[in-house]
Write a structure and sequence with these properties.
With 343 residues, the chain is an alpha/beta fold. It is 44% helix and 14% strand. The N terminus is likely disordered. Keywords: 4Fe-4S, Cytoplasm, Iron, Iron-sulfur, Metal-binding, Pyridine nucleotide biosynthesis, Transferase.
């Protein structure tokens, strides 16, 4: 494929790229990496991105880990293949760098469940409460937050807050319920938000898949609607507790590197399977719900990554005053302890 063909493809509105052969894909990868070098850019891809984009990226991981990599990277431009709040978080931690997202309309159904005005109103109803917000929120929400958390350190963040202090936890109701269950605290008020992809990984999906795969291990992301069901099955003995793991995406990768299980059932967005299979080629990783694909993540396509490098689109800008307030909430989380797994 020639450079001209690639440049034409980047404006394509159809799925022609899905039919590229191995040579065309390799030419695209080489072109993207060459442009990144020329633009002094580092390409970051979230674990839920399309496999081709994960494979061309310099770094793959969860949003917070990638934002930290961005801040430490020597490159002056960051191309963040993920959804918009992730690129915003990278900008918070790298205010002096240019941050690009290949499609600025790639949103997040979870982040969209609460905005800054709603959070301010909720805070007004509960004066004195501490606001704990998941990193899967906009910069404007982080600016109204006391301390952020990830799915791997949410319990530690909550435990750092005095037990007699009311907590407003947002926006994910399933993660909030998990934290309340683990900590035993009844003064945690949880916002009723959800990631529609994780919420659709249902208890019925889980029970059916578990019963069809006896002896398998289970990795469940705490954003899933089936988390409680997984623990219930483990409690009943239908799935031994030692084979049931509620994990962040980073936690899943760590567990995958060390497991000796023949089969692992995975309850999270299916893009995660690509990384799990790369770190462990001896285990059969199977999705609990094979339809759990995030349409917003999949808005970032190979042609759009190329276009971002060629044209500098789409640049992420965060108001400096808002960014300073939002950054404090992230820094307070980091001061408690470095999250091991991220979201």
């Amino acid at each position: 494929m020639t450079t001209t063909q690639l440049d034409t493809d980047r404006f394509s509105t159809d799925d022609e790229w899905r039919h590229w052969d191995a040579t065309q894909l390799r030419d695209w990868q080489e072109r993207v990496r060459r442009l990144a070098d020329e633009q002094d850019a580092v390409i970051l891809a979230h674990n839920y991105q399309l496999p081709a984009i994960q494979d061309v990226a310099h770094h793959v991981g969860d949003s917070l880990a990638l934002s930290r990599i961005a801040a430490a990277a020597p490159q002056r431009t960051i191309v963040f293949a993920g959804v918009h709040f992730m690129a915003e978080t990278a900008k918070l931690l790298s205010p002096d760098k240019r941050v690009l997202i290949p499609d600025a309309t790639a949103g997040c159904s979870l982040a969209d469940t609460i905005d800054a005005a709603q959070l301010r109103a909720w805070k007004a109803e509960h004066p004195g409460a501490v606001v704990v917000s998941y990193v899967n929120t906009t910069a404007a929400v982080k600016a109204e937050t006391d301390i952020c958390c990830t799915s791997s350190n949410a319990v530690d963040v909550v435990r750092s807050i005095p037990t007699d202090t009311e907590i407003l936890f947002c926006p994910d109701q399933f993660l909030g319920a998990h934290v309340r269950r683990v900590t035993g605290r009844d003064n945690i008020r949880v916002w009723l938000g959800e990631c529609h992809v994780h919420a659709d990984i249902s208890p019925a999906d889980l029970e059916q898949t578990v019963r069809a795969n006896p002896g398998a291990e289970l990795y469940v992301h705490p954003e899933c609607g089936c988390t409680t069901s997984a623990l219930w099955l483990a409690g009943r003995g239908e799935l031994p507790a030692e084979r049931t793991h509620v994990l962040s995406t980073g936690g899943m990768l760590h567990q995958a590197r060390t497991t000796r299980a023949g089969t692992v059932l995975v309850a999270t967005e299916i893009g995660m399977l690509h990384q799990l299979r790369k770190v462990n080629q001896h285990t059969d990783f199977r999705p609990v719900n094979p339809r759990a694909a995030c349409p917003f993540m999949q808005q970032i396509t190979p042609p759009k990554v190329l276009r971002s490098l060629l044209e500098g689109t789409d640049e992420v800008v965060v108001d400096p005053d808002l960014a300073a307030r939002a950054r404090r909430a992230v820094e307070r989380m980091v001061a408690i302890g470095r999250p091991a797994g991220g979201e």
